[in-house]
Amino acid sequence: MANKFSGLAGFSRTALFAGVAALALPAVAHAQSETDAQATEEDLADELAASNTIVVTATKREQTLQETPVSVSVTSGETLEQAQIRDVLDLQTVAPSLRVSQLQNSSSSTFIIRGFGNGDNNFGIEPSVGVFIDGVFRSRSASSLNDLANVQRIEVLNGPQSTLFGKNASAGVISVVTREPQYEFGGSVEATYGNYNAVTVKGDITGPIGEGMAFSLDGSYNRRDGYGEIVNLGKDISDRNRWSARGQLLIEPTADLKIRAIADYSKIDEVCCVVSTLVAGPSAAAIVGVGGGLSTDFFSYDTYLNQEPINKVDNYGGSVQVDWDRGSIGITSITAYRELKNFVDQDVDFTSADIVRETRDQKVNTFTQELRIASDFDGPINFLLGGFYFNEDVNQISGLTTGADSRNFFTLLARAATGDPTFTFNTVEAALAPFGVQQNSIFAAGPLTAEDYSMSNEAVSVFGTVDFEPIDGLVFTGGFNYTDDKKDFALSGQAYDPLSNINVVDAFITLASGGTVTTRAQFQALPAANQAALLGAATSAANPLLGLTPFQFQPPFLDVPNSVEDGKTRDDKFTYLARVAYEVSPNINVYASYATGFKASSVNLSRDSKPLAADYTPGPVRSNFAAPSSPITDAGLATVNLTTGSRFAGPENAEVYELGLKANWPGLNFNLALFDQTIKGFQSFTFTGTGFTLANAGQQSVKGFEFSSTVTPVPSLVYTFAATYLDPVYDSFVNSPVGDLTGQRPAGIPEWALATSLTHILDFGAGNQLLTRVDYSHESNTKINNGLPTFGPNNFMREVNLVNASATVSLDMGLEFGVWARNLLNDQYIITVFDSVAQAGTVSGYPSAPRTYGAMARFKF
Prior knowledge:
By secondary structure, the chain is mostly beta strands. It has one domain (about 1-405, about 445-500, about 550-610, about 645-860): TonB-dependent receptor, beta-barrel domain (Maltoporin, Chain A), CATH 2.40.170. It contains eleven helices and 42 strands. Strand 20 (about 330-345) and strand 21 form a beta hairpin. The radius of gyration is 29 Å and the shape is globular.
């Protein structure tokens, strides 16, 4: 093997960059060529009997997955078909180190590897887990949610991958590889029908269109009724309504030049998602008091909303990949342009009372260019050198709208809080009339905020690896990445609520002074004793306005950039990799590595963006009159009720120590990775009940191991088992939204995650088979959060036990038909929970999806 493949040199380059084919278990993987492009079912059965090796191929080199010195799991297109995995949300059932969660709408998903991940709900936050489809970086999770059509394999790479991917990902990478066009005419068509009137249609066709030229077309349509119901509206929720289409052109004008062009379009138009009430707090009575309702049976899939949520996603783009083989040097260029449009209109109080709704209209335009040069020398040294350019523009127009029930709802809350059954906001409006507050204006139906955010991001990376093999089987690898990242952002907003436009301390001082103190300058000009007396009264029980502060949800917004805040982040970082790999025997490989990773600053593109504490210091109860000197105050920029938070979070810096063992014998293989991974400055993004906070955790680390194995006792039976063990800790997180978490275990990260499957092939002869598969995934019981910002400490837990099954009959003529079930035993668990919007003491959450099942027919030709 060492002579044929030049030992182990270039494993990572081979396995992770230009791999053309990998077929994961239970069907054995095999290298494909132009003359052997499609294997028949009979071929797969023969190979399964011979070996259980996954082979990854590249230009003139092939290596087994077991020899690849990185922690990576591979799922083939065949496994996706057999397990009825429709999109990346289901991928976690076969990759235990990966977790994917979908939240309040179809476009809000988070990918998490080894407990690290973020990026949902805010387009200014870079994901810690990068998603690449055919080598093209998808910068937002909403652009990664296409149905998985014509997939060859999906690789989940654990840990930072900066030396192999130009766009840094501090926690890991999901790499989706689709099939290239073939020179033999063929294709498939598939139709599925399931419960909830689920209808899925997929098809693809490929073939030659001339000498050295081939094409492929594929598409999918996925529709399903919602498994939940908006009870008061009699409408379904958590439905499926999406389609996608893609065309590819493969041009090979010479034996050493290959051009692959891809264009795709996908659309989502769905009503999502079911939200249930886990704890009905004191505010629940006020919801009922205004004629509203809220779900109290968490797993009933009944919800109450005053409008159907709207979520529309348009995702399209194209790429051109050019591979030029110059003998011992290979050159690859990938040029891509993509557009993403995401529109959301949603009732965000998640009750049938008309209190508040949110709209978001988001657009993202992304251009990427990657260039790589890789060697394939016979000698002891090989290298890879690459450059990556990233240019992206993000624009968002959004806002909140106060509903018709809002005023009455908050009146009931105020009466309960004060114990005064006669309280009305009319009395407050009368008291605040000197400040221009009109009668019936507080919480009046209509616009609450109007927001406009934009961000441009330009990044350049240079990366590479060098492999040195002094003796056969022993390889030393060094790698590096240098990234320079620039972000320019602009945020502006208007807040229309008159109550939030008044500071209750400053208003009291103005009234108490008989109207002689109306500005900060006038207050600061008073004798110190007078200032102290006025401020003391204004912040004590003598001020009846203080009780109104909990109702000041959306104060005026300080636009960025301004004379103090320039609206820019500038980051650059050099990261590196050091690894040694050794082939102990033809069956056993070991490796040890140390790697660092980096993710640039993320920007809080939301109404919750606030100045850093270094730029502004508010006075007591957000008073501007009593605010001490600070850059924003001194510049005369301070808006009413301004407080501090974050405009952006600084970079994430990762490092990981890893030891690996990979072994393969006839009928058995296993992989083991031990790791100690740390991210300094992890970008934490948390919902607080009325908004989101973005902050850097001082340091978060995790120790653990990943184990995967495949056992083939007889050619017709394959058993797989994978386990991930995680022991995470907040080494330092002093200023979290729920207090000092230093030394605590980060919530939401299960100690154990397991994925196992059993596949049996019954051969009827003449190429006819029955393939039966059962798989099980488990996440151990774990706390969902470290405490909620409003609700406080709690013991909300989740444990996952999913059983999926399928049976497929394959006939020699190319016809296949079968049945399938996901979540066969109807396991119920809480995905996550959050403080209900403007409802202190109430906790809402997302229940897991119920059992789904159906029948499938497929024809391959």
